[in-house]
Structure formats: C-alpha cells, structure tokens
Amino acid sequence: MKIYDWPTGPYPARVRIAVAEKNLRSRVRFETVNLFKGEHKKPDFLAKNYSGTLPVLELADGTFIAECTAITEYLDALDGAPTLTGKTPREKGMIHMMSKRAELEMLDAISVYFHHATPGLGPDVEIYQNAEWGFRQRDKAMNGMRYFNAVLKRHPFVAGEVFSMADITVIGGLIFAGLVKLPVPEECEALQAWYARMQERPSVKNRVTMSDPIEA
Amino acid sequence: MKIYDWPTGPYPARVRIAVAEKNLRSRVRFETVNLFKGEHKKPDFLAKNYSGTLPVLELADGTFIAECTAITEYLDALDGAPTLTGKTPREKGMIHMMSKRAELEMLDAISVYFHHATPGLGPDVEIYQNAEWGFRQRDKAMNGMRYFNAVLKRHPFVAGEVFSMADITVIGGLIFAGLVKLPVPEECEALQAWYARMQERPSVKNRVTMSDPIEA
Which residues lie closer than 8 Å to B64 by C-beta, 6 or more apart? Predict the structure, then answer.
C-alpha cells in the first residue's frame, strides 16, 4: 500500500497512528505531497482525491481511498480483528459518533481557523479566506476542548473504556491545536492528562519519523 | 429504540432510510424535535447530543448515538449481516469515503448554505449567519452534484456495484437541495437517472410517513 501525505500534518497523523496501531508499517510506503506548494490542489492529485485533502491511501490495484475514517476502517478490517473501530454494534456507534464529533467540534474547526483566519499555507494556496468564519470556528474548537475534557473525566478513553479511532481523532485535533498555537485551556486537566498518556504510545510518539526509509 | 428527529429533515431521512433498509421499523419509536422552534439547540436536547443536531438514536439502556454515519453503523451491525456499510475492507473503505465525500461536497455544504445564506430556520434559531460563506458552500455543492454525476456514469451506485450508505448520503443531499430549491444541473443526467431509481425504493419513498403510528 502507498500513503500520500505530509509527515507532520494533523490529518496524516491520524492514519500514521492507525498504521502503527495495526502493525502495518512494513506494508506501507509513504509519498510526500507538498502542502505548502499546494500540490494537493493540483489536477494530478485531485484525480486521486476529488476533495484535495491528505492523506490518501492507494491500494495495490490502483484504488484510492481518501478520508481518515474510511482509511482507518479499511486498515482496521484487514486482519479481521478490529481494534480501532469497534466490534459490537454499540461500540461501532459510539466510536463513530465520538470520532465525528471530534472532527466537527475540534479538528475540522481548527483546520478552518488555520486556513481562513491565519496565513495558513500561504497566499498562493489560500486563494479564498473568510476570517470571520475562521475565528468563529476557533472559538468552537476551544469549546470542543472543554467538551472532551468533560468526557475524559468520565472514562479513560474518548469513546469509553478502550483506545479507539475516536482517541486518534482527538489526538489529531490537539496536534493541529499545537501547530497553530491554540493552547488547551488550563482547567482542562482531564484532557491534558489523557493527552500526556496518549503521547507515550509508540504509535503517537513515532508518527512523524515512521516514514523515514527503514530499508536504506 | 427511539429516534429523535424531524420527519422531513434531510439528515433524519438518512437514518429513516437505513431503518427501512434494515427492516427495523417495528423496533423504533420516533419522537419529533421541533427544528423551527430551535428545540435542538436547547439544554435538554444538547444533553443528548452536544452538537445540537438531528437525528439522535436512544438505545434501551439510555445511551444516545448521534451522527448519521454512527447510527447507520449501529443499525447495520445489529443483525450481524451488514448490507449498508460494507463487508470487506475495500468495501468499508470505499463506502465510508464516498459517504464522507457526499457530506463534504454536497449535503453539509447545502446545510451551511441553508443556515447562512437563506432565512434558514428563522431569526430566532439562526442567531449567527455568514452569508458569504453560505454562498461559497452553495457553489461547492453544485460542483459536488457534477462530481457525483461523473461517478454515476461509471457505476450504478455511489460506491460501486451495490446500494450502500454512500447512496443514502447522496440522497440526503438531493433531498436538501430540493427543500432549498437548488436544482440539479440539467447536464447531470446520470445523477438524475440514479435519483429517479432511488426514489422508487420503498425506504426512500415512504421515509416521511414511516413514523406515523402503525399500531393505532
């Protein structure tokens, strides 16, 4: 399999963490798409992913799978033993709800803030900006952090008792928050303690360097 | 199970169609949440779904599952024989990608247009609007229709050879387009032909009236 991504990107992080959690590192090659040159908005890449976003997974048969949730579903199903997306109906429902909520209320909101209310990827890539909308989304993301803090006071992981795709999505949100220098509110102690635990996981800790050539 | 929704809503339609496709009608009770009175933004409902959106599924044990994709995952897994969300890793990946793409490029974009660039649910509910962003999203949705038209020229259903959650999401988009009077472009013949076929399915045709009391 081949993954098109940008090593330090927050959305790429979601798939890199999933690859590591599923012990699939040896079956994946990474190819960098230069975000700051806007390569993800050029026709060549848009043919792979209409939405022009990273990451994208390419299968051996040439099929392209975009969207982190979709890629995670694919990777998690490969060995017939899902550990990230749930086994029972209730687990599947809860994990998908909390992961989507983490996108809506935090990760995607921070992305809109970055692309619309900061210089983002630079003037050549950010050809349309709506700063008012961007700031609105920043405020939404800060409230999202408070929401997930409340969730993590109640149970050890975002969707309940075990690590899942929903944790990975919140991790993506906090990675993006770090990049754009949105600090987690001080009172969000449960969220901060959980994030410190998450950063101890090898899948999270080694995500950026995992694509360095290992058979050099 | 109980479903909180609004009978004619485009997002509620996604779950109503899934319920019917899975033959679960007899196991579900519907409760109306009045969108035009903004009941979905009041504390009582926000305690059920932080994001303040419909529909929400309530399980017998009091668990709330929000987000259409999450509810569909739950419903589709109940009988151990998924028909909407894919069986193989590749099917799961493709269906989730195309469903998410239908949200991003059409359904959610039309929703933003409705809430930001039209009177939406009225001045008491739409307390913040960003019309410029709304019109941008309308244009994105029109391009989304052209994209899905191209997809449906290549294969009979949105994610390939069989009906799936991805079709349901595009149906949700076209239901919303109809409500806000955004016409499908004339040249989108494959999309229109597919939609005509979809409207013949009992799950789609009877979605609004399915919540009328049947054991009266």
Answer: B48, B49, B56, B57, B58
Residue A76 near residue A84 (C-beta atoms within 8 A): yes
Closest CA to A30 of A9, A2, A55, A67: A2
Return the C-alpha torsion angle B69, B59, A148, A194, nearest 10: -100
3-state DSSP assignment of residue B97: helix
Cβ contacts of A54 within 8 Å, gap of 6 or more: A4, A5, A6, A9, A11, A12, A33, A35, A40
Nearest CA-CA distance, residue A169 and chain B, Å: 15
- Bridge partners (DSSP) of residue B57 are B3, B65
Between CA A15 and CA A75 the distance in angstroms is 9
CB contact under 8 A, A101 and B132: no
Minimal CA separation from A216 to chain B, in Å: 31
Q: Tell me if B179 sits within 8 A of B7, measured CB to CB.
A: no
Question: What residues of chain B lie within 8 A of the CB of A95, using their CB?
Answer: 70
- To test the contact with chain A by mutation, choose from B56, B91, B92, B137 the residue with the greatest count of A C-beta atoms within 10 A, namely B92
pLDDT recorded at residue A215: 45
If one counts every other C-beta atom within 10 angstroms of the C-beta of residue A94, the result is 23
- A44-53 per-residue burial string, b: 16 or more CB within 10 A, e: under 16: ebeebbbbeb
Of B51, B46, B50, B67, the C-alpha closest to B3 is: B67
Q: What are the residue ranges in chain B where pLDDT is below 70?
A: 212-216
pLDDT mean for each 10 residues of chain A (216 residues): 97 98 96 96 98 98 98 98 98 98 98 98 96 98 98 98 98 98 97 98 95 53
Helix (H) or strand (E) run with residue A17 in it: helix A10-21
What phi and psi values does residue A56 have, to the nearest 5 degrees?
A: -130, 135
Which residues from chain B sit within 8 angstroms of residue A59, using beta carbons? Answer: 90
Query: What's the burial of B164, exposed, middle or buried (CB within 10 Å: 0-12/13-18/19+)?
Result: buried
Alpha-carbon torsion angle A55, A56, A59, A62, nearest 10: -150
CB-side neighbour CA atoms (13 Å) of B42: 9
- Give the single-character DSSP code of A34: -
The arrangement of strands across the sheet holding A2-5 comes to A29-32, A2-5, A56-58, A64-66
pTM listed for this prediction: 0.97
What pLDDT is stored for residue A213 in this prediction?
Answer: 52
Residue among B76, B30, B136, B7 at smallest CA distance from A88: B76
Q: Which residues of B touch A136 (CB under 8 A)?
A: 128, 130
